Amino acid sequence: MTKISIITINYNDKIGLSKTINSVLNQSWQKFEFIVIDGGSNDGGLEVIEQNKDKIDYWVSEPDKGVYNAMNKGIKVAKGEYLIFMNSGDTFYDDNVLEKIESQLTDEFDIYYGDYYRVYSNSTKKRTFPEKLSFSFFYSSSLSHQSSVIRRKLFSDIFLYNEEYKIASDWEFFIYAICHKNVPYKYLNLTISNFDFSGISSIGKFKDLDKEERAKTIKKYFPLFVDDYIQVSELNSKRFKQIFHIQNYPKAWKFLKMIISFTLLFLPKIKK
After folding, report:
1. Which of 64, 145, 181, 252 is the most buried (most CB within 10 A)?
2. CA nearest 112: which of 144, 138, 140?
């Protein structure tokens, strides 16, 4: 059986697609299956695929119903034991990443994950992950599919990506698999990818939709934690983050506490 399948999703991102294909094909370890699912691009992306078709094991260019529908298409045709989603614009951190990953894959774990760099138009920022994942971690964060290696069988044992979602379907899969099904996982202490942060899930205006989709998942699979999720969401609001930031400055924090204490003198006491 093929050990790893790399699935690339593309739609009208010719430049990003070229960058991703080059990154995949430049890997020192080449015993992978390479799949490209294109959504019927009309910007020249199809020509890029055809130029590299002898190095792509499977590709299709046809309209789809969104990114998660396209990812599910890739899952259904993949033959690898493990899957990596490296979508258009995303790249492996270096040419030896797959070799390093492959050497650490065992039957003991179903999900492997590592770090990545967020790539903005004029800068980069490294994102590191903890070795131990928890429900509280997923409350406000998620793993990155660009830096995760997922056993393909999980998608048939658990479920495919939720195509009703536009932002949070991969988060839903991870929190359900790890926190509900106790799927064994392992942190790989290495940087796996460069994540193109110009995608839909990284744009500020989609944050509300992301929050809404996550709330639906919590309500569906973890109903006892709905109130906790709402409270954590509030604590992660901009205003609370500003307050926590002030704590880093002793004089400012002391002044803020004085104002709060003075204000509370004129308010009814909090009921215990």
Report:
1. 145
2. 144
